[in-house]
Amino acid sequence: MSGDLPLNINIKEPRWDQGTFMGRAQHFFMVTDPRNVLLSSEVLEDSRVTVENYRLGIVKPGLTEDELWRAKYIYDSAFHPDTGEKMLLVGRMSAQVPMNMTITGCMLTFYRTTPAVVFWQWVNQSFNAIVNYTNRSGDAAMTMNQLGAAYVSATTGAVVTALGLKSLTKHLPAIMGRFVPFAAVAAANCINIPFMRQRELNYGIPVTDAEGKRLGESSKAAQQAIVQVVVSRIGMAVPAMGKLFYSPVIMNALEKKAFMKRFPVLNAPVQVGLVGLCLVFATPLCCALFPQKSSMKVNSLEPELQESIRQSNPNITTVYFNKGL
Fold first, then answer.
1. How many CA atoms lie within 13 A of 78 on its CB side?
2. Quick one: 273 exposed, middle or buried, by C-beta within 10 A (0-12, 13-18, 19+)?
3. CA–CA gap between residue 278 and residue 250 (Å, rounded)
4. Predicted structure pTM score
5. Cα separation of 2 and 117, whole Å?
6. Do 247 and 275 contact (CB within 8 A), yes or no?
7. DSSP, res 36
8. Among 25, 108, 219, 269, which has the minimal tally of Cβ within 10 Å of its Cβ?
């Protein structure tokens, strides 16, 4: 070991207590920090080397504990927790705010015509498909055929849902049309996520003991993980319900004002700004609804996996798994 930093800092786990909502929120505020998308490849690589070397017992001279944790969170924001591969930039959770605020702002602005609804729902669900695949649980890749089928199913389902909901608003007050994107996004997430992570449902995701030793793969764990992610994503789609209520209402009122009528070009930027303000807080807070490292009882797993665990590890009653994001 070189340097003065001790080697007993557990950077395999988050810095804050994940047994509490506030601890999880602090963790996800770091992971989803949109400033991380601006970090250079050199900074990401330096953080990766720092983290991996520390795990091997090698400490860079002069490294402080705060610098180590900073490197750990930069690493977590850009590298997949199971495969260790650098994630596609737009698929990282740190890209959620800038990407979602732009797409959602456009969905809220261009909602009056069917072609606009189709186009922006397709853009949104294409982005979601990338995010869902990038943040999947486990280390098994999907084939191109599986990925293509999942993408087509997810995006088609989202667009059909959006059009169906839009048709229901024809005889309702105009403001109701603004709520179509939110309802469509919430419903589409229930379609997109299971399709993009179908391999996990079919073949299972890794489950481990408390120390991280792999015990097998479980589809039951995958089901629980995907339900948790769907709930969190719906929360991001309609951040704390605030964006659902105040953004459409505010925009409907603002569009009647003289300055908005005089400068209609401000419509989209104002929409994007309102959405972005919500998402800065909604993204980490919705991710924090469930721990990243989720758990379930052994007796809730598949019978054959239960038997295998009890034979090799009879004292284990709870297993753990990465739920993905």
1. 24
2. middle
3. 14
4. 0.77
5. 58
6. yes
7. G
8. 269
